Amino acid sequence: TAMVVQPNKRWRMSPDCADLLTPCEGGRVGPRTLFLDFDGVLMPSPPRSGYPAFVWLPRLHAVLASHPEVRIVLHTSWRLHQTVDHMSSKLQTLMPRVVGAISGDDRYPGIAAWVAHHRPVAHLILDDQAAEYPHPAPAELVLCDPRLGITDSRASRALRRWLGATASGAPGKR
After folding, report:
1. Which helix (H) or strand (E) holds 133?
2. Which residue(s) pair with 39 in the sheet?
3. Which pLDDT band holds residue 170 (cuts at 50, 70, 90)?
4. Which of 24, 71, 129, 159 is deepest in the core (most CB within 10 A)?
């Protein structure tokens, strides 16, 4: 079956991969990719009084600031009812990094299809829903405590470790 990718209209051509709708040729040459959930990662899930939507977005922005080449693919349940442009606008200054959203109802098969199609040099999944993934969980999955999201020290450390380990020229890059 053909995979449908919801592209972001603001995507600019990359020297590594002509565009998101054309598979990269050869080995893993697409940009490093962060698969991002919203609820439980960028804001508490379930919502809590006193916590605005996307309360933890500044934390993600700060962590990604020194890694401008990292692209974002949305796998949030919002994708089932919202356009990529609408969802990416919620990410404010990170909006230009959003290159699309996975398709289908199930997260992990959608992520796996996106990775197989685009072959990023490395990818990481931020989510709070363990039930969406096989057991044992894929090594690329970082589960966030849904009450703490990316402010969870374990999740924050894992994200920083991945960014450092997969940076261009880093030893052990996967």
Report:
1. none
2. 43
3. low
4. 71
Tell me, what DSSP letter sits at residue 174? Answer: -
Cα–Cα distance for residue pair 67/63, rounded to 1 Å: 8
Q: Is there a contact between 31 and 121 (Cβ–Cβ < 8 Å)?
A: yes
- Residue 31 vs residues 66, 101, 120, 141, 151: alpha-carbon distances, Å: 15, 15, 5, 18, 25
Written as six digits, the tokens of 76 are 């949030």
* Cβ-contact 160, 108 below 8 angstroms: no
Return the structure tokens found at 80: 């089932």
Scored b (16 or more CB within 10 A) or e, 50-89 reads: eeeeeebbeebeebbeebeebbbbbbbebbeebebeebbe
Residue from 143, 109, 116, 108 nearest 128 by CA: 143
Residue 123 reports pLDDT greater than 70: yes
**pLDDT at res. 27:** 55
Percent of the chain scored above 70 by pLDDT? Answer: 80
Q: Which amino acid is at 113?
A: A
CA dist 112 and 102 (Å) reads 9
Regarding pTM above 0.90, the answer is no
pLDDT-based confidence at residue 6 (cuts at 50, 70, 90): very low
Interatomic CA distance for residues 117 and 23, integer angstroms: 6
